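Could someone model magnesium ion with this protein?
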Amino acid sequence: METKIKKITPDSLREAKNIIESGGVVAIPTETVYGLGGSAFDDTAVQKIFEIKGRPNDNPLIAHVHRDYDLSKLVDFQPSYAKKLREAFPVGPLTLVYPSRGKVSPRVSCGLDTLAVRVPSHEGAQAFLRAVEIPIVAPSANLSRHVSPTSARHVLDDFDGKIPLILDGGECVGGIESTVCDCTGETPVILRAGLITREMIADVVGDCKVYEPKLERGERVKSPGILYKHYSPRCQTLLFAADDIENAALTYQRETLGGKRVAVLCEERWLTLFETLGAKTLNLGKTRSEIAARLYKRLREAENICELLIAIEPTEKDGVMVGVLNRLQKACLSEDIKR
Ligand code: AMP
Ligand code: MG
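Reply:
Sure, complex below.
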């Protein structure tokens, strides 16, 4: 199969709609990362997405809809804070988990009685969702456990010959996946950190908790995705805290002397230090939004230039950086978390 990359035009949207209606999958841009989209109503399309990605079959998918889609067709808005959150964040990188009305394929939520829904703000994603008019499941368009894609080229690198069409909407501005927030209990609970922070949610509804799975008790995790090694480049990766920078530098020198091709991924402030040592550096930038937007691009660059990546954690650890840090830590996991 030839994989075409096409800019978003009335013609390419028509082509995408035809593919979706015949049970196929299409890669689409969003403001977070590129997604691998298929009809949420179609068991076969949903199954195909799990297979193409090699995604563990207990990791549920998010349904994406356009901004005027009537969500009451799919979910019950039980708690009043869920309505407040929808009004405060009508579009953007926030996924809300509601009690499901069971209208989508049961494969979408992997047997859970809830459904995660997001309304992306990306204009190309909106145009696509309007063209198809049905909810689209769209997990990140990368092979499972690999780094998420923030450009059409990244999608092609993972799925060339495996999918018919990639809609090209440019580079993703957000850069990390949406915040996933459970809206089935008394207060909202963040299941996955992202660009909409705990503080932003608490500002709207007064309170917001962060889910911490009790892995040792073997209970069913609320968001199975959190257990998997994820976002990982195909090179060995070592993560150092920003206050352990001397150790990172020593490790760089030792591994380079040992003959390894080593690169360093860090905020702009550390570049000179590592460049003085002769290191190839991958610059995450200065501001929080720059760091989030560049993270996956730099992790993908790393796998092409080194055998060992020394990654330095961002200095700031609150707000949006909670999500960035979470991705970086998982990228550096050597295997899935065992239960
Ligand atoms: P991805 O599609 O790769 O962005 O991952 C979707 C994320 O949303 C994963 O972390 C899932 O575990 C989480 N998720 C999707 N549906 C649900 C749901 N019904 N309940 C809880 N978490 C969900
Ligand atoms: Mg993903």
